From TrEMBL:
Gene3D superfamilies: 3.30.390.30, FAD/NAD(P)-binding domain. It holds the Pfam family Pyr_redox_2. It comes from Kocuria coralli. Residues 11-338 form the FAD/NAD(P)-binding domain. NAD(+) binds at residues 195-202, 282. This is NAD(P)H dehydrogenase (quinone).
């Protein structure tokens, strides 16, 4: 491990101020390095300004409406509303207010991050950066100045942008990417979401909650291909109950603007008329034309920057983090990659990235959180493990909250009972998964879980109960 004194003589230049960039900057400053961060869009990058922060704020509004519409058993109703157990009526979303709030929150978060960086002594440059050499970054500043910065190490954290289709080009009004949806001033009469991965499922769930008619076009048999099958099944059942239509095993061939809406033509010839279309068909890394290949940094065929487990590229002095690397498109992973890169570059203690312990969450309603191995890996024989799944409908707290959808699932290695992974589907699954994430990361066993007190009643009680059942299976 190096001393901070050693690191004080090193210069770090970071291109891109998203989670990977700003977390790296803070960590490098903490180790005493001289740090300059270059960002063209605003500190926080797309994650803060156009992706994670605004989309999850939109989802929070939609989730509130979902809960109001489905909690009539709790005896809650609007004044003048029904008292006979029917759905609560009269709820409406003001999209202009929602969008104003979420954009304000995003801008505020960006300013707060910038202030935090500057307070710690990071030099923040508004502009663009490109790689001019293994130890040189060329800066085109917003004020018109151009100059080169020398660096002992460079971190590239330039993110990604939405992928589009050749015959479905966004216009920012009716045909939209997820960065443009906040331009809509009224709830869409009918929104077609193309793509049933995480982004597509989240926006479909959100706009359905806000009151739009939603059609989700999925190229696979189920939504969220690649995710836990039981979780996807719960979500599809909820979608069906809430009137959201899923067109499975279908692909969009083109999207055309009409006088008052759009027409989505599927590759089999079927057509869907709607008011708006949201394209959620993946993303493309912002790695081209910034000098990487010219200095010898290897790019994958997809355009992603090839990195090792300490975020190092094929050029030893250049590191990369975040969506431009294609490791896992999560803000938490980008941040960890950035911190690891700086620790390695500055000689601090380093624990290489372990993607096997990454926790992730899908912010649909209900939420879907996962960590560790998948049930598919058990089924194909990669791991020898026992599985216990408990529906939240059996949980006392869930009953009190009128929660009927969701479950807790744990995977434990046969024999020692080490917890290898888990899935939580339900309200605030993003919070509940943390306990399982700690268990997976630290190698805890089902007995460690089952011997630990939980609050009664609580949703987390189902995690402890699943652990006790796994104990019984293994003894």
């Amino acid at each position: 491990m190096s001393s901070i004194t050693d690191s004080q003589h090193k210069k770090i230049v970071i291109v891109g101020g998203g989670p990977g960039g700003y977390e790296a900057a803070l960590h490098a400053r903490g180790l005493g390095a001289d740090v300059t961060l270059i960002e063209r869009q605003g500190v926080g990058g797309a994650a803060v300004l156009t992706d994670v922060v605004p989309s999850k704020t939109l989802i929070a509004s939609a989730d509130t409406i979902h809960r109001f519409r489905e909690v009539h058993d709790l005896g809650v109703h609007l004044v003048g509303g029904p008292h006979d157990g029917a759905e609560v009526e009269g709820l409406a979303a003001d999209l202009q207010t929602i969008n104003t709030r979420l954009l304000r929150l995003a801008a505020t978060q960006s300013r707060d991050i910038r202030r935090g960086l500057e307070k710690e002594g990071v030099q923040v440059v508004d502009g663009t950066g490109s790689i001019a050499g293994p130890n040189t970054v060329h800066v085109e500043a917003e004020d018109g100045m151009e100059y080169d910065l020398a660096a002992d190490a460079i971190l590239v954290s330039v993110g990604a942008h939405p992928r589009t289709l050749p015959d479905a080009q966004p216009d920012g009004e009716r045909i939209l990417t997820w960065t443009q949806v906040y331009n809509i001033e009224e709830i869409p009469d009918h929104l077609v979401v193309v793509g049933s991965g995480v982004t597509g499922a989240e926006f479909a769930s959100a706009y359905n909650g806000l009151g739009a008619k939603v059609t989700l076009v999925s190229s696979r048999d189920q939504v969220l291909p690649g995710e836990d099958a039981d979780a996807a099944d719960v979500l599809e059942n909820v979608f069906e109950r809430r009137g959201l239509s899923v067109v499975s095993r279908s692909r969009a061939g083109s999207v055309e603007r009409t006088e008052d809406g759009v027409v989505v033509t599927l590759t089999d010839g079927r057509k869907i008329a709607a008011s708006h279309c949201l394209l959620a068909v993946g993303s493309i890394p912002n790695s081209k034309a910034i000098g990487l290949e010219e200095v010898g940094v290897q790019l994958e065929n997809s355009g992603h920057i090839a990195v090792d487990r300490v975020s190092r590229t094929t050029v030893p002095s250049i590191y990369a983090a975040g969506d431009c690397t294609g490791v896992l498109p999560l803000a938490s992973v980008a941040a960890m990659q950035g911190r690891i890169a700086m620790a390695h570059a500055l000689g601090d203690a380093v624990q290489p990235l372990r993607t096997s312990v990454v926790a992730s969450n899908i912010f649909t309603s209900p939420e879907i959180a996962t960590v560790g191995i998948s049930e598919r890996a058990i089924a194909d024989g990669t791991y020898s493990a026992d599985i216990v799944k408990l529906d939240l409908s059996t949980n006392a707290r869930a009953k009190m909250m009128a929660v009927e959808d969701g479950f807790v699932k744990l995977f434990a290695r046969k024999g020692p009972g080490t917890i290898l992974g888990g899935v939580v589907v339900g309200p605030r699954a993003s919070e509940l998964i943390f306990a399982i994430s700690v268990a997976v990361s630290k190698g805890l066993t089902v007995d460690d879980f089952s011997d630990t007190f939980t609050v009664y009643p609580s949703l987390s009680g189902s995690i402890s109960e699943a652990a006790r059942r796994l104990h019984h299976l293994q003894n």
